[in-house]
Design a protein that fits this description.
Length: about 450
């Protein structure tokens, strides 16, 4: 679905105060923004480069990718080295009773036992060893854990794309809102000029001018707020005097309604994420099932001990198997099976939500399209009515009430047309977002 092309650039009044530089990287971005009217595509491009929320999601994805390596690492050899140097000083004691042998009997002489003690000279003992362990077979436990970590990393990657799409949508809507506010400013400025035309009813003329100025103030404030939203979405200081090109034009789009839902399910990162959660839950279920089996590990060390560094070594194969743990593994396995069922249900729920969003978005596009046609017809009629009313009033055959009503009707028709154009552009942006495209 092609996006509507922007119209020629227009400018409006902007704050004269320079923006506040908040970081060392802002200046290069501001140089691309200041002094020119941005197109919508340029604004989106800057936002995708500088928006901190996207950069944060990228860092989250990299962290999740590193956790995949962590999950796989137990399958690789584990090598450690150790060295111990000890200096020991100890004491020993001994005791004995006096006895004599008489014939075949042993006669113990009563009395206190005799004891002796000695202090051994300090001794040094040195031990150095290098140990190696390798899981020989763990019945796929590590592979299942690695698969679950990989699915989490894939979800984090889709979260990056989701954030990019949300930022793109915000930029496009803010861009349109600025143009909408600028269009209202021009309409209200024309309304003020019309209200200031000479009239016989001075009181009514003053009321018309005051009302037009109030609407003009509101339109200018709406433009400032929309610019703040755009600057924030782009990732630059909120008070930057950003200029934008006018994109508030009507360009019809062609929609193949039969293919929209299929495209959305293939492209929406949220739907990909819930499907990845099913794979993650299944991997965790496999890991929980394999916990019922033993681990077979090979170990060995080589080193030397004592002051003369006599060689020491050992090679062993061990099997560890938890035979009973109070039902903990059974409970974890049952929990993992239920989590798989829940994840599958969320996939179906996500598909329904996406279907609803796509249908609502295309209905809104159609509705805004129809409103534009009606509004443009109303503007043409209101302009002709105002021209006739002004002519009758100048000729002295029309009343001030008739002229004022014609002025108000023209202003309202122009506002309605601007609102319909803005709604159409935003409806197109939201349809693109519903389809999962930037």
């Amino acid at each position: 679905m092609p996006a509507p092309a922007p119209a020629p650039a227009t400018t409006t009044q902007t704050p004269a105060t320079p923006p506040v530089i908040t970081g060392p990287g802002d200046r290069s971005v501001l140089d691309r923004v200041l002094g020119k009217a941005l197109t919508q595509d340029e604004a989106v491009g800057i936002a995708l480069e500088t928006q901190p929320s996207i950069q944060a999601r990228l860092s989250d994805y990299l962290a999740a990718a590193y956790r995949v390596d962590q999950a796989f690492s137990p399958l690789l050899p584990q090598l450690t080295g150790s060295a111990t140097l000890a200096r020991t000083k100890s004491a020993s004691s001994s005791g004995a009773s006096t006895f004599r042998v008489s014939g075949t009997s042993v006669i113990v002489t009563p009395g206190a036992a005799q004891t002796s003690s000695s202090i051994r000279e300090p001794s040094e003992n040195t031990t150095m060893r290098v140990s190696l362990s390798q899981i020989i077979f763990d019945f796929g436990k590590t592979f299942a854990s690695t698969d679950a970590a990989r699915r989490l990393a894939d979800q984090a990657q889709e979260d990056v794309e989701l954030q990019r799409q949300l930022v793109t949508q915000t930029v496009k809507e803010s861009f349109t809102n600025i143009n909408f506010a600028q269009r209202l400013i021009r309409v209200q400025e024309q309304a003020v000029e019309r209200a200031q035309l000479p009239k016989s009813d001075v009181a009514r003329a003053e009321v018309d001018v005051a009302n037009a100025r109030v609407d003009l103030i509101r339109a200018r404030n709406a433009e400032r707020l929309a610019r703040v939203a755009l600057n924030t979405a782009i990732g630059i200081p909120a008070d930057t005097p950003t200029l934008v090109q006018d994109n508030l034009v009507y360009q019809p789009i062609v929609m193949d309604r039969t293919q929209l839902l299929t495209r959305a399910l293939n492209q929406r990162p949220e739907y990909k994420q819930v499907k990845l959660r099913v794979s993650e839950a299944e991997a965790r279920a496999r890991r929980a099932f394999r916990d019922f089996f033993p681990d077979i590990t090979g170990t060995g060390f080589y080193g030397a001990s004592r002051f003369d560094m006599n060689e020491i070594w050992e090679v062993a194969v061990s099997l560890s198997w938890t035979l009973y743990d109070g039902g903990n593994r059974i409970a974890r396995f049952r929990e993992s099976k239920v989590n798989v069922e829940a994840a599958q249900a969320r996939v179906r729920a996500a598909a329904l939500d996406i279907s609803r969003e796509v249908e609502q978005a295309q209905i809104n596009v159609t509705e805004a399209d129809e409103r534009i046609q009606a509004a443009q017809t109303a503007v043409a009629s209101a302009q002709e009515n105002f021209r006739l009313a002004q002519g009758r009033f100048d000729a002295g055959v029309g009343t001030i009430l008739e002229l004022t009503d014609a002025q108000l009707a023209l202003t309202q028709a122009q506002n309605t047309e601007a609102q319909a154009l803005a709604d159409y552009r935003i409806a197109v942006v939201r349809l693109e977002r519903a389809l999962g495209q930037r």
